[in-house]
């Protein structure tokens, strides 16, 4: 079974783009259609709610939401959709991103937001691929290959380390 669901990446500000660039590349590397938007939970709440409310009907399978400081964006989007929402707390000059982390992860019962590390957009992308891979064998196979490659790389590095240690 295969699906061609899109992933939405919503950022609270254009200043969040550097954190998200590699996540966009990761998703595109898996041939997943990506739509990237700027929406604010506080400055454009009607637009954010409208986007989330219609995301499923518009072909999205996962929403990634990145925001700093108060970081309510992921929660606002999650309140208006049944799609999985992955929050990316963004480090800002205030509290090194701890404020964003707590705002993203501390959601009320019934409004879950999967939350990755501060500035952890790469893992948000991989989690989105894993979610879509539940129903898309092509994505699941690509993830299996990627994880096998990661395993082999660690084994190669360990073997190289053992050679260095033996020559000390």
Biggest sheet record: 5 strands, parallel
> How would you spell out the order of helices and strands?
EHEHEHEHEHH
Low-pLDDT windows of residues:
none
Tell me the number of helical segments per DSSP (H or I, 4 or more residues long).
Answer: 6
Percent of sequence in beta strands: 15-25%
Distance between the termini: 53 Å
Q: State the total count of DSSP E strands.
A: 5
Helix vs. strand class? alpha/beta
Q: What is the 3D form? A: globular
Q: Can you give the mean pLDDT?
A: 95
Write a concise synopsis of the structure shown.
The chain has 168 residues and is α/β, with parallel strands linked by helices. The protein has six helices and five strands, in the order βαβαβαβαβαα. It has helices at residues 17-29, 45-54, 73-79, 98-105, 121-133, 137-166, and strands at 6-11, 34-38, 60-68, 85-90, 114-115.
Textual characterization of the structure:
With 168 residues, this protein is of the alpha/beta class. It has helices at 17-29, 45-54, 73-79, 98-105, 121-133, 137-166, and strands at residues 6-11, 34-38, 60-68, 85-90, 114-115. Strands 2-1-3-4-5 form a five-stranded parallel β-sheet, sandwiched between helices. Helix 1 packs parallel to helix 5. The chain is globular and about 65 Å long. The model has no long low-confidence stretch (mean pLDDT 95).
């Amino acid at each position: 079974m295969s699906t061609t669901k899109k992933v939405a990446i919503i950022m609270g500000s254009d200043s969040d783009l550097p954190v998200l660039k590699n996540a966009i590349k990761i998703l595109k590397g898996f041939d997943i259609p990506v739509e990237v938007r700027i929406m604010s939970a506080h400055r454009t709440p009607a637009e954010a709610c409208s986007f989330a409310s219609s995301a499923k009907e518009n072909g999205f399978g996962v929403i990634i939401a990145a925001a700093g400081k108060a970081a309510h964006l992921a929660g606002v989007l999650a309140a208006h959709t049944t799609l999985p929402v992955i929050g990316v707390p963004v480090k800002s000059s205030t509290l090194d991103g701890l404020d964003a982390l707590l705002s993203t992860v501390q959601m009320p019962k019934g409004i879950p937001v999967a939350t990755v590390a501060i500035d952890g957009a790469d893992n948000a992308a991989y989690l989105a691929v894993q979610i879509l891979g539940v129903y898309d064998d092509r994505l699941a196979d690509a993830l299996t290959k990627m994880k096998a490659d990661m395993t082999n790389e660690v084994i190669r590095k360990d073997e190289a380390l053992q050679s260095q240690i033996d020559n000390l």
